[in-house]
């Protein structure tokens, strides 16, 4: 067996978007439509996952793939404008990213904890830590480009 320092991990922890169970998925099988070992639903849906405060930390802390977060609010015009573009980006970014949405009206504790001052705001989390942030609405291609650029 040959080992390299930049080798991909053999398996990744993926948090189920339905039941929040942590699943171990072989890295080579991420694109093979894996299902949750607990609830048997798809681990990747191609759509943003709406997360409450109670679910948010588990997803950012236990997921081995980067988590892209849209902090938004239902009354925000630019947020509503960006929503379909964010959904399009989710279809293309999964399974390399977990794509989620956090309603800052429902999760005011998260908005305060992460000092969200304007919405929409995109934030990228890796290993439970925020690594990049971008305020303002974007189209799908800019969302994907921003996520890829900040995932290096």
Q: Topology of this protein?
A:
Layout: E1 11-15, E2 22-26, E3 49-50, H1 53-62, E4 67-72, H2 77-93, E5 98-103, H3 108-113, E6 121-126, E7 129-135, H4 140-149
Parallel strand pairs: 3-5, 4-5
Antiparallel strand pairs: 1-2, 4-6, 6-7
Outline the structure in words:
The chain is an alpha/beta fold and 152 residues long. The chain has a domain of 105 residues: Glutaredoxin (3-Layer(aba) Sandwich), CATH 3.40.30. The protein has 4 helices and 7 strands. The strands form 2 sheets. Strands 3-5-4-6-7 form a 5-stranded mixed sheet, with helices on both faces. A two-stranded antiparallel ribbon has the order 1-2. α2 links the parallel β4 and β5. α2 crosses α4. The longest helix has 17 residues. It is globular. The two termini are 27 Å apart. The N terminus is likely disordered. Keywords: Disulfide bond, Electron transport, Metal-binding, Redox-active center, Transport. One of its GO terms (cellular component) is cytosol. One of its GO terms (molecular function) is metal ion binding. Belongs to the thioredoxin family. It comes from Duganella aquatilis.
Salient structural properties:
redox-active center, five-stranded mixed beta sheet, 152 residues, Glutaredoxin, two-stranded antiparallel ribbon, Thioredoxin, protein-disulfide reductase activity, transport, Thioredoxin_CS
If you consult CATH, what is the topology of the domain at 45-149? Glutaredoxin
CATH architecture of the domain at 45-149, by name, is: 3-Layer(aba) Sandwich
Shape: globular
Unreliable segments (pLDDT under 50, ≥5 consecutive)? 1-5
Straight-line N-to-C gap = 27 Å
Strand order of the largest sheet: 3-5-4-6-7
**Helix segment count?**
4
Major sheet: 5 strands, mixed
Order of helices and strands: EEEHEHEHEEH
Q: Average pLDDT value? A: 94
Task: Give the helix/strand class.
Answer: alpha/beta
Helix content: 25-40%
Q: What is the CATH first-level class name of the domain at 45-149?
A: Alpha Beta
State the fourth-level CATH superfamily of the domain at 45-149.
Answer: Glutaredoxin
Rg calc: 15 Å
Strand residue percentage? 15-25%
User: How many strand segments?
Assistant: 7
């Amino acid at each position: 067996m040959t080992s390299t320092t930049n080798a991909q991990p053999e398996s990744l922890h993926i948090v189920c978007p339905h039941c929040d169970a942590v699943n171990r998925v072989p890295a080579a099988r991420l694109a093979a439509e894996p299902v949750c070992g607990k609830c048997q639903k798809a681990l990747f849906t191609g759509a943003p996952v709406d997360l409450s405060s109670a679910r948010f930390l588990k997803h950012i802390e236990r997921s081995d793939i980067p988590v892209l977060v849209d902090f938004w609010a239902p009354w925000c015009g630019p947020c509503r404008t960006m929503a379909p573009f964010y959904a399009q980006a989710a279809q293309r970014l999964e399974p390399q990213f977990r794509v989620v949405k956090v309603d800052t009206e429902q999760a005011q504790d998260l908005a305060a904890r992460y000092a969200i001052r304007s919405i929409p705001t995109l934030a990228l989390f890796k290993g439970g830590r925020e690594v990049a942030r971008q305020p303002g609405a974007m189209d799908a291609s800019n969302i994907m480009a921003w996520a890829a650029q900040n995932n290096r």
